[in-house]
Task: inverse folding
């Protein structure tokens, strides 16, 4: 979650409508079942996705990335694309049991570490440092796009 955006891993593509999007997902092997394809075609993403509903790409959600997006959770996986000073507890809270959080952690302009946080089935949290990194800071909404938020 960076600049208030949730990122869902997909092959980015633009389509002309819901049926076209489902056709693309099926052709790429993301959707394998005719039953699932039929269900997806029956739900118009244009009614639920506020921005670029027929793009197979991340859907932006304005907000403080450190708080995650509780309404969409719990999540199997969360990948944060900006460095947090500390691991944001709300993101851990929004993981499903057996979920994984990947987040760069450290001060802006200093050494940071890519952290892997796993939530066990019993709710236990296991943290692992993966590697050194340098990311832009994870910020609050009012600091993201100056002048665009009121």
Result:
């Amino acid at each position: 979650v960076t600049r208030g955006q949730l990122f869902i891993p997909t092959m980015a593509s633009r389509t002309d409508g819901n049926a076209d999007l489902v056709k693309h997902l099926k052709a790429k092997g993301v959707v394998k079942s005719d039953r699932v394809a039929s269900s997806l075609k029956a739900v118009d993403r244009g009614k639920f996705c506020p921005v670029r509903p027929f793009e197979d790409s991340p859907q932006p959600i304005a907000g403080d990335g450190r708080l995650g997006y509780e309404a969409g959770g719990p999540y199997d996986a969360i990948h944060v694309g900006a460095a947090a000073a500390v691991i944001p507890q709300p993101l851990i809270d929004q993981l499903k049991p057996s979920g994984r959080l990947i987040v760069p952690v450290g001060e802006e302009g200093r050494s940071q570490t890519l952290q892997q946080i796993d939530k066990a089935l019993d709710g236990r949290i296991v943290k692992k440092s993966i590697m050194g990194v340098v990311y832009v800071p994870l910020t609050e909404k009012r600091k993201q796009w100056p002048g665009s938020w009121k």
Q: What stands out?
A: DSSP finds three helices and four strands in the chain. The first helix runs from residue 18 to 27. Strands lie at 75-79, 95-105, 112-119, 125-133.
